[in-house]
Amino acid sequence: MSGRLTDEVVLVTGAARGIGRAIAIKAAEEGAAVALLDILPDELETTAAELEHSGATIAASVGDITDEDSVRRSVAELTKTLGRPITVLINNAGRNSYADATTMTVAEWDSVFAVDLKGAWLMARAVLPEMIEAKRGAIVNIASIHTQLTTAGMFPYAAAKSGLVGMTRSLALDIAPHGIRVNAVSPGFIATDLLEEFFDTIPDARETALAVHPLGRVGTPEEVAEVVCFLASKAAAFVTGANWSVDGGLGIRYA
Questions:
Q1: Average pLDDT of span 31-44
Q2: Would you call the peptide bond into 156 cis, given omega within 30 degrees of 0 as the criterion?
Q3: Domain 9-244 in CATH: superfamily?
Q4: In this structure, what DSSP letter does residue 186 have?
Q5: pLDDT per residue over 24-33, tens digit each?
Q6: Where do the H-state alpha helices sit in 54-143?
Q7: Domain limits, the chain
Q8: Would you tell me how many other CB atoms lie within 10 Å of the CB of residue 57?
């Protein structure tokens, strides 16, 4: 299978469902060998079986991106199974947060930042040595529209995702001399389980969101995957340190 990602080995975290699953499928369609990493074993197995049935070259590992030993084991396992080092990392795994700043515990705060920020660094740290040695590679971090505007009741999600965009910029500068690019993608309202969780948690959120979307609808995981795979490919060879919005125009609306 030939495409924009032919000869690439693409590792997707949070690959079992939602945006991660769509990215994994699109990357395979674009010719990549795909490494799937998730903490949900049953859903990961289902996604892996679907990709295998399509004829894609894949490997899957159950792992926790917030634990450095688990990250190290999973990356080693996936690399060994595929027989090649990772050339593209998609840091997609994430979680929502609905906390009160005055009552949130330190443990709860740490758990949000562990998934939404620290995990992306641990994954990058694990794959970068091989990329640096090869003088090639790409990282795409899945951030959020919350990096630019946010909503009440989701503390401290915007802080964690904003940190991810800041890390994207810093890392892009530091590793550019090695021929490696780092970009972020900030989805808006995308039809996933996390969006349904948001709609179920915040009163009237569904109706409010649909009413203000310039395109009159929420997006799909597949639409995000298209942008991610472009940024991961050589077609975006002169793009690094950027944060691309995939939000149907919501982020440009005044009110």
A1: 98
A2: yes
A3: NAD(P)-binding Rossmann-like Domain (3.40.50.720)
A4: E
A5: 999 999 999 9
A6: 68-82, 106-113, 119-134
A7: 9-244
A8: 18
Give 137's contacts (C-beta < 8 A, 6+ positions apart): 86, 87, 88, 89, 127, 128, 130, 131, 178, 179, 180, 181
Place of tokens 């027989």: 83
Q: Give the Cα separation of 109 and 17 in Å (integer).
A: 25
Angstrom CA distances, 106 to 102, 120, 192, stand at 11, 20, 28
Confirm whether 254 is a catalytic residue: no
Say how far residue 98 (Cα) sits from the centre of its chain. 20
- For residues 119 and 14, what is the distance between their CA atoms, to the nearest angstrom? 11
- 8-12, 56-60, 152-156, 226-230: least confident range: 152-156
Q: Which of 121, 157, 198, 230 is catalytic?
A: 157
